[in-house]
Specification:
Helix content: 25-40%
Number of helices: 12
Number of strands: 30
CATH architecture of the largest domain: 3-Layer(aba) Sandwich
CATH topology of the largest domain: Rossmann fold
Shape: elongated
CATH class of the largest domain: Alpha Beta
Strand content: 35-45%
């Protein structure tokens, strides 16, 4: 049966302009306080009822790093709500959100938030919007604008009424029976429940035990949960739900449909031929382990991996670094991650995870460095500070060699081979021996060879053999640094 479509509404805008606080007020919940740093860092969907009408809201992060999540939210919506703080006006992610709304031709409402603040200046914000080609209805244009306060609730009912009005004006309808279709919002791995996805049904009727198919994977629906985490048996348009269990993680943003066992056999064959899978695109262990900075990345959701990819690209360009991602995956750290980090001398980056205490203690024992963070901009700052400190340290280092092989050793002499990574080393140099970041001993270079020929010095990038006068044992991957 064709019905009026419960509108799918995406909330867009700049960070800290009150998008999630607005949803808190509408839902009478407290989402923002549950978010690390009180900012949204993943895409979420929530269903509400207003005057007998259902509305599904998609909340998107406002931080610069989450561009892909904002675009995904705009792409799947029927209506957009562009939230702008009336005391701050148009900001970079406001402009970006406007571009997405234009690209996907989404009708939208401007919600001028924080009008309860004395610094609020709605007229100035409207003038800024006009400069961007957005003409408010009150100024003769076609874009509805409503003044709101997500804090006090002023104007929120008017905003909801405008959403229903826009739905009716655009004659949004859908089919609420038959096989379900929709789209994947987000995907994650649960250690107990397997590969999960949050999704929205756009048409039809989704039920337990049905087969669900996307372009990259498939699964049989073993459970359905609504946006409040309650178990349900079925879902109609445009209900946001979480389902399990997929054979492999689906790609966020892709469409799904219901199929049967015959369809499953066909997609299995197609996936095998084309090697399409979430894991091949997002989760991997790299064979190439050379770089200025090697990283192992673990996160909670695919959207987080996307954001971290953007941050790393920016840092690599800013500091002219060759950043290699050795491994990228979802879920908490494991002992295997630590072993890989030790082997490749990689830094571990984890976002929005509770890593087991036993793992963190083992990392200290192995001298494996871990940067943890629950707030995206704080994690970015920690990483940038590390890069700057390494740059500063490298400028002070006269010479540094990484040990690639060990040969003869006595109580007072150790013969090793290695590559000069920084500066140069010379015959007679006094050195320190580092294991990880810990100094384990000192010594002096008493013999130096390059291409098996005695040498006075060896430059950065060159291989050499050397005898070091020291009582400390030297291992592969130790660092020899000139004092």
């Amino acid at each position: 049966m064709i019905i009026k479509k419960p509108p799918i509404v995406t909330i867009l805008g700049h960070v800290d302009h009150g998008k999630t606080t607005l949803l808190d007020y509408i839902r009478k919940s407290n989402i923002a306080l549950k978010e690390a740093g009180f900012i949204t860092q993943k895409i979420g969907a929530y269903e509400i009822e207003f005057k007998g009408e259902k509305i599904t809201f998609i909340d998107t992060p406002g931080h610069l790093a989450f561009t892909k999540l904002r675009e995904r939210g705009a792409k799947v919506s029927d209506i957009g709500v562009l939230v702008i703080a009336a005391d701050e006006g148009v900001k970079p992610q406001t402009k970006e959100s406007l571009e997405f709304l234009k690209i996907y031709k989404i009708p939208f409402i401007v919600a001028l938030n924080k009008i309860d603040k004395k610094e609020a200046d709605p007229e100035r914000v409207l003038a800024e919007l006009v400069e961007l080609g957005v003409i408010p209805e009150k100024w003769g244009g076609d874009v509805p604008v409503v003044n709101i306060s997500a804090k006090t609730g002023e104007g929120v009912d008017e905003l909801l009424e405008l959403i229903i009005l826009l739905r009716d004006l655009n004659d949004l309808k859908t089919e609420n029976e038959g096989p379900a279709k929709g789209f994947i919002l987000e995907a994650t791995k649960d250690p107990r429940r397997g590969n999960l996805a949050s999704l929205i049904v756009s048409s039809g009727h989704l039920k337990l035990n049905e087969f669900i198919i996307t372009s990259s994977t498939w699964g049989k629906i073993k459970f359905l949960e609504d946006d409040l985490g309650r178990k349900i048996d079925e879902a109609y348009p445009c209900k946001p739900i979480i389902i399990g269990n997929f054979e492999s993680l689906p790609l966020p943003g892709e469409e799904f449909e219901v199929g049967d066992e015959k369809d499953i056999k066909e997609i299995q064959k197609r996936l095998k031929e084309k090697e399409i899978s979430f894991s091949k695109k997002y989760i991997f262990v790299s064979e190439d382990k050379e770089g200025d900075m090697c990283l192992i990345i673990k996160a909670d959701h695919i959207g987080s991996l996307e954001a971290l990819d953007g941050i790393l690209t920016n840092l690599a360009n800013k500091y002219s670094l060759n950043i290699k991602i050795i491994k990228q995956d979802l879920g908490s750290l494991s002992f295997q991650d630590l072993d890989l980090a030790k082997e490749t001398k990689a830094l571990i980056l984890t976002f929005n995870l509770k890593n087991p205490k036993i793992i963190l203690e083992k990392a200290k024992e192995l001298n494996v460095k871990i940067i943890e963070g629950n707030v995206i901009y704080e994690l970015e700052e920690k990483l940038e500070n590390l890069i700057l400190s390494k740059e500063e340290a490298s400028q002070k280092i006269k010479g540094e060699l990484v040990v690639l092989a060990t040969f003869n050793k006595t109580k007072t002499k150790k013969t090793v081979g290695g590559k000069v990574e920084l500066g140069k080393i010379k015959l007679g140099d006094r050195i320190i021996i580092l294991r990880g970041e810990e100094m384990i001993g000192k010594g002096r270079i008493i013999s130096l060879e390059k291409n098996r020929i005695p040498a006075e010095e060896v430059q950065e990038g060159e291989l050499c053999g050397l005898i070091i006068e020291t009582t400390k044992d030297i291992e592969i991957n130790d660092i020899i640094r000139v004092e």
